[in-house]
Structures are given as structure tokens and as C-alpha cells.
Fold this protein.
Amino acid sequence: MEINKMIVKLSAIRTMMKRTAASIVLFSAAVANSTLYTLSSTLLLSCESQAPQTYNLETGNAVYYWRTDLRLDSVERAFLTQYQIKKFYCRYFDVVMSDDGTEPKPNATITFSDTLPDSIEIIPTVYITEDCMHKQYPDLAEKIVSRIIQMNETNDIRNVHEIQIDCDYTSKSRKTYYDFLREVRTQLSTVHCHLSTTIRLHQLSMEAPPVDYGALMIYNTGDPNKWEERNPILDMRDVAPYLKRLDKYPLPLAAAYPVFHWVRDIHGVRVEHTVEAEDILQVKQAMEKERPELRKAIITYHLDQENINRYKPETYEEIYHH
Amino acid sequence: MKRFIIISLMTAMTLPTLACGGGGTDNYYLFSPFVGNNFKSRVEKICNDNWKAYLGLTEEYFWFNADEVIKAAQQKGDALMVSYIQNLQKYLDCVDIEQRKQYEWNYPTKEDIDGQKRTLQAVRTYALGKTKSKLRSQHALLYMRCNMMLGQHQENVTYWEQTASQFIETVYKDMMKNIYAGALYKTGHEAEAGELFAEMDDEESLMTQFYKKRSYLAISQHYKQNPTSKALPWLLKDFVNNAQEAADAANGGGGGSVGKQFIRDINQQESWQMQQFCEMVVREGKTDCPVMWKSAKAWLEFLAGKEKEAAADILDAIKLDGTARMKDNAHVLMLYITAAQAKPGEAFDDYIADELAWLKGKQDEDGFFLDVENRLTSHVLVPHYRSNPVRLTAISRALYSTGSGFDLDTLNVGSTEKFLFYTNTPANNKLDKFLKAQLHENDTTLAELIGTKYMRLCQWDKAIKWLKDIPLSFYNNNFSREYRYYSVLRHYDVEPWMKRQWLNTDEAWEKNVQWWKHIKLDFCKEMQMMEGSLNLLKGKAYDQRCYNLATYYAQASIHGDCWWLLRDSKSCYDNVRVNEVDFDLKARELLQKAAMSSDPALKSKALFAMGYRELYGVVFFGEKNPNVWYDLVWDSEKGESVKKYNLSSPQYRAYQALYELTGDQPQEEYIRKCDEYEQFRKYYRQHR
């Protein structure tokens, strides 16, 4: 009764546009025996560069790739060439809590149907849901790193020098997340790989994470419930309060700008959020004024034919202007 | 066989991400032109039944276990079955490699994948060699499965067309046909594949194939290519149900995602286009099921708010041709559309009585008709009878509904008494006769509820009248062990601000506590006596009585330890509901009187009691409560929660008065050990 009927009220605040990729159960086969990989000399094949003491974020253009199948059409391939994309932040898999809530599990792993041009560096990116960071799972870092390395080896992906972890950590999960990142870094140091993480604007007020650099997500800045007042994807008024924190943020930062659109149903009304080109550019200008380094490494979220066609080439040229 | 799903087209496809997840739904879809007989479930059941028969089991068989079957086959001397299962298991191990790619930490190595390919080739060769054996269908299926996993789809097309299609009808042949459909899709014969998937009711594969071809435009183009395509009912159903989802969401309903994974938002413009198209299809005369198209039009019109047009079209629809299910579906829609526009009166009562009887009769055929009853009750009948509480109660209790919002527990006590009378008198019209035949009410349950409702209104004499004849066995037989455990071990005369009556819930089940006296009745009698004589008291006796009454009210409140007096269960989110007195407020008012006492000890206790946070309701983080001395609010600049003080709140004022009365170093132990007051004291000392 009293205890049994205790119900958990769902948080009123929902994470906007979770970066969870498609999850379709393809096989109902029993879980295969788990084999933990150890970091061996063979892993050096996939992570080759030597980490400097202070990370030097190179100037260049990049994209996020957030689909479940690495398969590019001609428009997307042309985009990579036209805008001289050097880095390809490719979501490898998500890490989510298992159905029984006992442990983090991989989900929605990418399939490699295509290869990228040799000139482009692929950066395996893993999205971790925030609830995986509510407590420590001692072997999680090793599992993730091992899985990425095995994916690279199995699918003949070379030229990997870095991985990126994406997590919408909060003040509640920050400490666990940073401990986890330290462990990932330790794992990666064996194979001389760099580590980066995404940083949301609200996370700028926290201590910097223990990574080589951060990818500042300059999107999903607004309250989705106040969509009539402000664009929830990007609005200068929501960015403004964070500008003053940029200059002193003690970590190299790449800048990630939104080119996606978001369609949702709000009380029966189809609402489509997109960001006007001039709004993106206005924010870019303001950010770079506070922190000129932000014009070095620029990422767009995310590579997709629809997103490419949404903006004029001049807009992309300005976004990628260094 | 549990893992048969590998044969589905879905194996090689992925779909876009969900917008959201979690939550159930009660806005059941009313457009259902065919009986769902999902391929996966159907085939799985037959396979399990086959294994059950082979193993000679009497209980249902759910999970295929190769070792178990091999052992049974060996005992039977069935060498062919042994080799089949051994190879099937090898195939399933290859399937596991795919599973590992997606969901396991041990992503397969190159060696694993090479080994997988070699195994598949070997199993394929073995299976092909046995396709003339006694287990030819099973081996042929295994052969086609291996081809599919190896990406050799053209071989599967050829094998089916030249060989397997000639096999006798078995579940294995059905599964081969499904693989064949997938192979057609993979080799560019999408239209043929779609027809086969629709014929088999393979919804997952249909959704994969048509995921981006479900708009009005895509459906109309599909129709133009083949006006009698088997995929059209499925596509139309998907479109109309998505339109219902959008309409329900607009009306504040819907929004669930369970089983509605592929919700597509359909706006009014697209719905209108489809309505026009449905009309054109009926007029054109190329379809073999005009009733389906006309029904779809009527339902889309209704969802778009065009109720009169919908009513006219659905009346036309029921005269048109189609399958029996399509005609039943039109009947359902006519019932719903008509009822939603009906004026209250005897004519409608008689009509709905007949229709409900028809609906009940159909429920043995298919669960769809129960869903219809649910939606009809929740969305149409409950609003229709809202002004007649007794009929409303009967409708809500006799018919299945999960979304009506009706709750007998919060119905006002007068209507509850009338409902009890209603259930015990003969019906004098068709609708009541139908409803009473469906009702299975227990008089004692209703009487106990009425007594409790009078308790919630503090009408102790009436509560006593209803509760006095409720036997103890009623509580011991009908209430849970947890309820009885709490009610027997917690006492309502304990001051909750002095002592919390914590209990170990785990013991509730072990101890199986029984009622040995009527605790609720005793409470009512004590309250009746204490309140009845209150105004006869004077001075300290009056003040003390107020304090005692406050204790009883605070305990009986939903926030008190004795919540079981007024409710049969409790949630930490519960607050005061309609048709009940705010017991916390009553307690606070009585404490206010007690705090006026000239007796410093009683005054101190009363002021301290007024600081008891539970008396001010439940407030969660981020919400504000002006009655408590501080709220926790999030400070985004600091990145932490901070206290915001409410200096004019009653709790603040009570603590302030207590401080002024007892000083900075109170002598009373109960004050000194209260951590909340200690926080106040520290704050007040600095800010007074």
C-alpha cells in the first residue's frame, strides 16, 4: 500500500532532442557471452598519434554524423569535398541503461556500409545517456574504449587519433562523469589517442572536464516549452548569458553549430524549428568575439542531405569561415 | 522458435529515431478494417506448439532450447532431427554475432565474422543436401535463412519459385515465403514484396518498406499503380490512425507511445486531401472494398470536426461492399459518430443500449471491440451522462474505460448513496436493464465507502451510521496485508510532530495482522465525542481539547501516519481531493486556538506543532509553497539549489513565535532535537 503505491513523478524537465539514434530490435537471440578485450599491441593499429602535453586544436572543418548506417549519398560526399571537411565525428553507438536498470549497455550501433575518403579523419563518438552517470561503473570506460577499438579493427577503420564522448551531464552526474573521463583517458593513453567531450552552454559554469578539448554545442539552447517565445534550437538571447564565461574557460574549444531542423507536435500543431542562417552567423560572430579561438575548429551538426539543402552554400562558407 | 525473426526484412533495415518514449495510452484507434494476425506472433506460436508436440509436453512451450530437443530426438532415435537441430543451433550462433554488433560489449572480431561466414556456408550446404529428406521443409528453411544472412537473395528468389513454393503448407513454408518476400525487396521487386508482406500481415516489414511512403501522396500513387493492392488497407489504416493520434493530441489526449512507435503527424490539409481521395476511390469503382474507403473518409471528417459530414458519409458507408470486418468497422464508426452527436433522451438511451449489447457480443471475436467500448465510454458516454451522476456511475462501472477520469472514490457521497440504491432496484428502461446486468457491485463495499466519505467530510454521526454494520471480517478479507499492518500498528492519538510511527513494510506480509476492533468506527466515535463537547469546555481544558483534536486531524490527513482512516492506499504525491475536508487545515486552525493558551507548555507544543511541515501539503523540488518558511529554488548561476525564505508564511510565523516564547536555547527536548527548527533558529538568530 503505502510503499507499493509510491509513484515516481516524472521530471517536468525533459532532455530536449536526445541524441539517441534508432533502436530497432533485430534479433531476439539470447545475449552472447561477454568477452572483455584487453588493450594489446594490435590496438595501436587504430590509434596512432602521440598525444602532446597541451592539446593543439588544429584549424579545420568538421561534421557530426548521427545516423545508424554509415552510408553517404553523392550530395553528402560532395559536401565533404566542397567544404574541405577534415574531421568526421561519427556516432558509433549509444550507451544506455539496460532494461532492468542494472548496467549500461551499447545500443543502436552504427553499421559501416561505406568508407570515407582517406583524407578525412574519423572520430568515433559515443553518446551516453545521463542516467548512466548516476553511479560509477568501474569497467565502463574500458568497455567503451575496447568496443571502439574492436569496431575499428573489424571494419578496417584506420587513421583514428581521437574519440569523443557526448553526455548531457548535470551537477548531479558531473563528478561521476569526470571520473569516467579520466578512466577513458587512462585507457586511451595506452594507445596514444586523444579524448574530447561535448560541452553544452550550461556546462560552461562548471569545472572543465578532464579531456584534451571540448566541442562546444551551440544549439539546444532554449527551453522547448517556451518555443513560442524563443527558438529552442538557437537563440542569441539564450546564448548571451554564457558569453562572458567563454574567454576564461580553461580548455581548448571547438565550436559546433546547428544546421538541423526539429519537427514536433505541440497540442496538435505541427511545429518545425529551424534556425535562420543569419541567426547562426550572429551567434558565431558573438562567440568568436569573446573567444577568437572558436573560429579554428568548426563543426556542423549534422551531415545529412536535407540539412545540406536547407542552407545556401554561402551560409556554409560563412559558418566554416576561420 | 524464438529467433525466427531473423527471417524478417527488418534484419537489414533500421528506422529513424523515436521522438519520445514512455507512457501508455487509452486513445484506442477506431479505424480497423482488418483483423490483425501478426506474422511474427502467429509463426512463433505455431513453432512453439510444434516443439511442444515433439517433446511430448503438456504445458506451453516458450523458449526453444536446442539441447533439450537434441536429447529428446536422441531418445527417439531421430538422427535426422539431431543433425537438423545441431545445424540450426550453428545458424543461431551466427545470428548472435549480429546481436553482438548491435547490443553487446564484445563487438565481433574479423575472425568472428569470417567464422560466421564459414559456418553459414557449411550449414547452407548441409541444409541443401537434406531438402529431399523427411524434414525437407525445415532444412529448406534453414537453407534460405543461410542465404539471407549471406546476402544471397537472388538464390532465395530462385529457390522459392522453383522448389519451395511447391512444398506442402506448413509454418516452415510460411517462413520461407517471408524470406522470399524479403529477397524480392532486396532484389528490387518492391511492389511484389509489399503484396506478400501485407498478405502475411508482417507489419514490421511493411513498416520498413513503406516508412517513407505513408503520406496521402504516396498512398494515392500506390493506389494508382494497383487499386486492389493488399497493402492499401494497411496503408490506409496507418494514415487514419495517425490522423486520430494527431487529433487526440490536439484535444489533450493521446500522447502515449507504447505500441505507437511510428506516429506520423498528419495535419488538417493532408487529412482533407485524403478525404477527397477516398471519395474519388469510391466513385471510381476500381476498389473491391468501397466500405473501407468511405468509412475512412467519414472518420477523418469526424476527427477534423466535420461531424455532420461524417454522419452522412458513415451512413452511406455501411451500405457499401467490403469484407465482414470492414462492415463491422463501419458499424463501429457509425455508432461512435452518432453517439458523439446525440442529444440526451430516451431515444438515445434505447439506441445505445442495443448498440452496447451488439458491441459486447462482438468482443469474443476480437479485442478491437473492447477497445471500442473503452474509447466510446471514455470519450462519448461519460461526457454524455455527466449531468446524471447515478447513470454516469453505472456507465463507468459497467463498461470498460480507462480514460474517462471517473472515480467512484471521489464521487460525492450523496450520489454514491443514490448509486447504491440504484443497484438494488429493478430497471425500468432498456439502458438500465443492460447496465444492471453488467454491474457486479458489493453492497458492503459501497456502504463502507459511503461511511468513509462521511468521515472525509467530518460528518461523524453519518459515518458511524454507515460503518457500524461493517463486519471486521470485511476489512480482514478485503483489505491488503499492508493496509491492515499500518492500520493496526499506527495510532491516531500520537502527536505526529513529536513522534513519527515508522514501520518496516517488509513485516506486513509476514505478520498478516488482523483487525480485532473496528478502528475506523472507534475513531469516528472519539471524534464525535470530542467535537460534540468542545464548546462545553473552557480555559485550559478547551485549549487542550483543541490540541488533541488537532492531533487526530493531523494523523487522519493523507499526510499523516494514519492515512488509512480516509483512504485505502497512499502515495507520497497525494493531496486533498474533491469532496473532502482539508484535515491539515483543520489541524492548523485547532493548533492556532491551542497556541492562544495561557499554559506556556501547551502554547509551546502548539506553536511547535504548527511548524510541522506535513501540515502544509506536499510540494516537490522546483515548486513553491507560500505556507512554509523556505522554498528550495534552483540558481542557475551558482549551479545549485538555494533557499528562498517566506517571511510571512504561517510556518515561519509559528517558529518565530516559538523562538520568542522559548528563547535561543529552548529547554524542551522535543524542540532541541528538531533539525528543521534548528535550521530556523540559526537563520532567525542572524536575521531577526
Q: What stands out?
A: The longest strand of chain B covers residues 630-635. Chain B is about 60% helix and 0% strand. Residues 79-103 of chain B form the longest helix (25 residues).
